[in-house]
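Progress report, Aim 2. The chain analyzed during this reporting quarter is listed below.
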Amino acid sequence: AKTAEGGYRMGNPDAPIKLVEYGSMTCPHCADVSAKSAVPLRDEFVASGRVSFEFRNFVRDAIDVTVSLLARCGSPESFFPLTEQAFANQAAMMEKAQQAGEAAYTAAMSQPDNKRNIALAELMGLTDYFAARGIAKDQANVCLANVAEAQGMAKRTQEQSEQFDIQGTPTFLVNGQSIGSMDWEELRPKLQNMGAR
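Predicted structure tokens for the chain:
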């Protein structure tokens, strides 16, 4: 379900342990946490009803905004699978951006607001990547042209960064309190000590 704070939550909204991650789609550390945590979080902790997990996009740059818009383009149910797959594709996506070269990147960035994310998605092969995962190209382009959604993510990133003193990604909150940035090996025992199972 989409949340009032602009994130997406899976699991019992009344779970005693409410875990929130602020993650960036261009952050390698976030991709590593996603690869290690997605299955145990969903299949153990969330499935037990003891933990709810909310992911809030923390956008750091234009590429981040582009990937986040695509991950949010389908139904609420598709958000987590698309986000996990986008993280899995992160290295390949960044490699494509580098291979395209500075001139192509600058040309994409100089597009008007409603065309910039479409140009970046094409440059990095993201339109095709998400099309293979159920987000048709026309649908993707509508989402990528949604300037209000992009600006909303940037505004929430700014406001919530100040509210929770977010210094880097991923940053985790438990029951509304920041527990800082850490990897899954550190987070898992913390959750278990709180009663997650």
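The CA atoms of residues 69 and 131 lie 14 Å apart. The two ends are 22 Å apart (CA to CA). These observations will guide the mutagenesis work planned for the next reporting period.
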